[in-house]
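In response to the reviewer comment on reproducibility (Comment 2.3), we provide here a single inverse folding case reported in full, input and output, so that an independent group could reproduce the run without further information from us. The structure tokens appear first.
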């Protein structure tokens, strides 16, 4: 008589567990959030804070945690305030903010293309933003606002060209990637021509900025970029709903009430803006937007579709960790963070190709 009971217990133990949800209410608004996703987000947030505090502590002078926290108080010494608040904090905070921006942009474009390679750096939007800033530098523009305007305009024009060339009875993801790679190659050639034909000062400025670096970053450009990024972040719930609907296919999304083409266009504009904000301050930083959404999807409990918020958190951790490596990997030298992310991205691509090859 006990055997059937054992069988039933085994079946229950082997069956997949249903995800648990919490309902959050703020006035008339309410939202259901998976407990597993909430725990994952909390862990990523803690990792980001640990990296932030580590970046504030390390340097030519290693400061204990007490002095780091004390530097933000009114009673802090002038030296601690200058080192932590004015020199180290802008770079450390920028790595978190810009990593989140790249993660969001990567999630949007990978959702639009339904392809793991559909990120802004592969499609060519980073290159377009770089072209916009190069034109600003060529015509004598200086300062963050000029660079930001050039990056946004360059990114949007590039996105518009790719969108129009790839559009054929709707926007097809694979076609968008192929057209984007072709446009990116042409823009890269044009960028090289601008640098070669420009004077030495232009070439040096373009080379340093084009490496993708957070060196020497101060609060003013970060506050401008962070403010715009915060406004875009308010749309994350709307973005998540559109991303989830589009991943089911155009026909299914239409049945669910999603305006497919207008939603795709809105996601392209938002994704370009997030990429351009980063490019205007740091130069083009590759592979964060490529890897963050895929990592976020794999660490999500129960899998599921691409998650914009999860991609933002993973991008935040990736760029902050890469910048920490860039600062302290080689003693007495600071490597551009773009060089570190390229190495990490190359290893990721090799792993991805090996994994897909074994599946085939």
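Designed residues, in position order:
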């Amino acid at each position: 008589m006990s055997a059937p009971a054992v069988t039933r217990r085994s079946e229950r133990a082997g069956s997949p567990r249903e995800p648990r949800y919490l309902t959050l209410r703020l006035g008339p608004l309410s939202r259901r959030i998976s407990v597993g996703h909430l725990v994952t987000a909390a862990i990523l947030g803690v990792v980001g804070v640990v990296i932030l505090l580590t970046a504030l502590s390390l340097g030519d002078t290693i400061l204990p945690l007490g002095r780091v926290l004390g530097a933000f108080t009114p009673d802090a010494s002038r030296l601690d305030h200058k080192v932590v608040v004015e020199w180290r904090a802008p770079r450390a905070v920028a790595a978190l903010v810009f990593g989140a921006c790249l993660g969001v942009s990567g999630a949007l474009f990978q959702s639009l293309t339904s392809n793991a390679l559909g990120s802004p750096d592969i499609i060519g939007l980073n290159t377009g933003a770089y072209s916009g800033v190069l034109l600003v530098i060529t015509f004598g523009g200086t300062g963050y606002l000029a660079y930001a305007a050039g990056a946004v305009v360059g990114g949007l024009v590039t996105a518009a060209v790719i969108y129009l060339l790839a559009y054929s009875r709707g926007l097809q993801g694979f076609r968008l990637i192929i057209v984007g790679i072709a446009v990116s190659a042409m823009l890269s050639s044009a960028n090289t021509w601008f640098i070669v034909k420009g004077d030495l000062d232009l070439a040096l400025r373009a080379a340093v900025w084009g490496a993708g670096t957070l060196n020497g970053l101060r609060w003013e450009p970060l506050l401008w970029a962070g403010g715009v990024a915060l406004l875009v972040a308010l749309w994350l719930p709307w973005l998540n709903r559109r991303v989830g609907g589009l991943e089911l296919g155009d026909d299914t999304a239409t049945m669910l009430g999603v305006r497919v083409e207008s939603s795709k266009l809105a996601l392209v504009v938002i994704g370009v803006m997030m990429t351009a904000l980063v490019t205007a301050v740091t130069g083009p930083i590759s592979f964060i937007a490529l890897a963050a959404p895929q990592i976020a999807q794999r660490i999500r409990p129960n899998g599921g579709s691409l998650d914009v918020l999860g991609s933002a958190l993973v991008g935040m951790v990736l760029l902050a960790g890469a910048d920490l490596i860039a600062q302290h990997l080689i003693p007495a030298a600071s490597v551009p963070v773009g060089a570190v992310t390229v190495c990490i991205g190359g290893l990721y691509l090799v792993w991805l190709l090996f994994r897909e090859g074994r599946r085939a």
